[in-house]
């Protein structure tokens, strides 16, 4: 568990504790930049945010609109957040933008994206 960031001030023999907030510094879709999706098949896509407090919430979307939800999210012991989206490819999504967005309510949202490359399920020779 990552310790909560804080600082203390002692004033007139009173201890004052201030909790700090840390905005999300970055978010990255974890891929080899060559993800190829096959129509109608599931593919796991991962997104990881940098250390923040409170921990980030990650959401997924296509072209900034069609909300795909949060995926399966884990708050990691190093203070990062990881989300795994099980994306079912649809040929109508070819060349659209898959985005993951991280926010924790402090500072700007951080977004990373990839262009979807959807291949047909069957090949004809």
Automatic annotation (TrEMBL):
Signal sequence, renumbered to the chain: none
Alphabetical UniProt keywords = Disulfide bond
Q: Which InterPro entries match?
A: CD80_C2-set (IPR013162), Ig-like_dom (IPR007110), Ig-like_dom_sf (IPR036179), Ig-like_fold (IPR013783)
Cited SUPFAM superfamilies: Immunoglobulin
Per its UniProt entry, which superkingdom is the organism in?
A: Eukaryota
- Keyword Disulfide bond belongs to the record: yes
Which positions fall inside the Ig-like domain? 25-117
Q: Which Gene3D superfamilies match?
A: Immunoglobulins (2.60.40.10)
Q: Which residues form a coiled coil?
A: none
The molecule here is called Ig-like domain-containing protein
